[in-house]
Amino acid sequence: MRKLIIIPAYNEESNIVKTVTAIQKNAKDFDYVIINDCSTDRTRQICEEKKYNIVNLPINLGIGGAVQTGYKYAMEHSYDVAVQVDGDGQHDPEFLNIMAEYLLDHELDMVIGSRFIEREGFQSSKLRRIGIIFFSKLIKILTRVEITDPTSGLRMVGKNVISLFAQDYPRDYPEPESVVAVIRRNMRVEEIPVVMKEREGGVSSISMKKSVYYMIKVTLAILIERIRKY
User: Span of the secretion signal (predicted)?
Assistant: First the structure.
């Protein structure tokens, strides 16, 4: 069973060493690949000096393009399981083996690490929690599947979803839309509780100014995904 950690990284010079060190310590059964999304800081230099496994994108693709590159890498290298771990220190690699066991034991296509099942650790900002609750209710209405943390980037998937995401993955704010895409294809998705940390640095893909655009864009994308024919 070959398992890959996809680490999308944009300007993570202050966190990337901590992230990789934590993975090497707590997720020894996993390989990893850092997708450097054309960082403008020392992220690339640090990774190359440390001889980390890194793919350097020639232009900035955004979070969706960076993560999809990771899934393409996973498919091309015949990985059975892939999981996204953000490079900003929010995701704890200690949960990865638990997630892998749950994914395989329950024969799932995707398992999401949710911070809202046991409500431990960093719970995100108040504004973002409002958006999370909205998307959770919207997904429940449209798919009849309850996802408590639809914006969680800590998602582990099997081969079927690796293949799907390598071919088709949302560009902007992809998490809620991609979850709906998996559910709509009658694939099995469940959540397990995890503890997340507050980001230690780097650049968030969602600023305060982009919040309104984010809500409208993702809502429309989810609605379109719901009526999309395959």
Answer: none
